[in-house]
């Protein structure tokens, strides 16, 4: 998996003794739905600024579209 996607959405880490840890991503506290690798649908438009800040920090290009 791409490193940027792991930082964004989180991942499951496995240790040498088969313990599994859920590593939270940057969007863990934002209520959103993820479609494939490229689409993030926000439940609340107030979170848009937070999401755009995270994407800019990771140097991910993004476009915003409003669904009606």
Short description:
With 68 residues, the protein is of the alpha+beta class. The chain is 25% helix and 26% strand.
Number of helices: 2
Number of domains: 1
Characterize the quaternary organization of these chains.
single chain
Structural class: alpha+beta
The count of β-strands is 4
Task: Write down the Rg.
Answer: 14 Å
Give the overall shape, derived from the CA principal axes.
elongated
State the distance separating the first and last CA atoms. Answer: 32 Å
The portion of residues forming beta strands comes to 25-35%
Helical percentage: 25-40%
Layout of secondary structure:
Layout: H1 3-9, E1 10-14, E2 20-24, E3 32-35, E4 39-42, H2 48-57
Antiparallel strand pairs: 1-2, 3-4
Essential attributes:
single chain, 68 residues, alpha+beta, two-stranded antiparallel ribbon, 2 helices, 4 strands
Structural notes for this entry:
This protein is an alpha+beta fold and 68 residues long. The chain has one domain (3-57). The chain is 25% helix and 26% strand. It is built from two helices and four strands, in the order H-E-E-E-E-H. A two-stranded antiparallel sheet has the order 1-2. Strand 1 and strand 2 form a beta hairpin. 3% of the residues are buried. The model has no long low-confidence stretch (mean pLDDT 86).
